[in-house]
Amino acid sequence: MKKNVILIVVSILLVFLAGIILWSYSLKNDDKIYENVYINDVYVGGLSKEEANSLLNSNYNKKSIKLIYNDKAFDLNLDNIGLDFKTEEAVNLAYEVGRNKNFIYNIKTVIGLRNNHKMTITLKIEYDDQKLDDSLTKISNQIDKEPQNAKINIKNKAINITPEINGYTIEKEKLKETIINNIENNNYSDITMQGKAIHAHITKEYLSKIDTLLGEFSTKFNSSNYNRSYNVKLVTEKVNGIILNPGEEFSFNNTTGKRGLSQGFKMAPVIVQGQLQEGVAGGVCQVSSTLYNAALYSGITITDRRNHTIPSSYVSKGRDATLAFGSIDFKFKNYYKNPIYIENVVVSNNIISRIYGNASDRNNIDVTTNITETIPREVEVKEDPNLALGKERVEDKGRDGYKVDTYRLYYENGKVVKKELISKSYYPARKKVVYKGTKKISQTNNKQDTKKVDSIPTNNTNKQTDNTNKQTDKKTDESLDNLMFE
To answer: Which end of the chain, N or C, is less surrounded by CB atoms within 10 Å?
Structure first.
């Protein structure tokens, strides 16, 4: 019992003595960081806060890192990415070692430090992540190279393919990780940037599958109509040089985009609800109709097509394809196992559409139409009190209506092996409107008119009107024959 009491007393004395020693040591080092304290790999033991801050700033004072790619070098300015070393915060933490806990814990900590137990404080680093990304993007933009797809060049139906060129880009995420890791380790040596190849999407090998003409068709247009000709050429360029991969669908509207005045199209005759009138992009439908026929001869699957309300003059009934952006489209889909290439060109006053593909997909095709029903135009007779009795004036010639079936015929060894119904077209009839004169002319007036100068005879006036009407009708016929509607 006596021994235990002695041990307890001795232990208390030893702790008290250690505390006195520590307290004495602390008094001597009151403004100093305790020994064996590090901030990262920088020894700050025995230094005041001011001295430790100065030492850290001298060790972490780099302003840039050189980034190298082949023969190009770029300086990454660390100030531009908002890099900030939290030195003051780290120094305060280092100073608090052995001071920021309770008395007993602090004594144990200081004793451990004096016995070469190392204490390391991590220096925190802050930077603007977005600014770093922006800086690396600017550097990458000066190095990156976009790949170039293989291209087809066709001249006089001869197919030439330009090989692809692969591109490359800097691996920014890996580069960013390396930069941050080096900064945290106080390493500002040059960094070699790693590039990553970007392969072209379309290769020469792939395009080489396009080796033959599958089908073509051409139509003529009236080049004297400037606005319409301009529209035809403009839209032809937009649907030229298109590669349609297996399973992809071609959309005329999606390919050309909106066809308005702001897109460069001009006013020209169009058909709206069976009426001929001025509208934007008149003539575009001749291009879609020409391409439609090329697609028919190519064996391509038509997925969306609608005929005009008036038969077109540039193709047979049942072989036209009308358009109205946002509502009526012309589409076809490539169900072949190989890509196809769509070519549309204007030569003189001819629109030529050609579809190229693989020889294994080529078929011997003919296209025929059959008028299944002709719908006679109705005649509406109206009275005209200003027109002489017995005279007639045709206000609207009207037109007959038609129902037409379009077929695709597949031949082998000169014989039809397959007859495919492609479409059923309906062109509604338009009534003929005739005005008959009801105006009676008295004999007295006739005699008076005969005695007078022959300058204003009623009958002559009627003849002139009638002739004018006939000329108008004739011009209307010509307009329907010669104008190419959208």
So the answer is: N
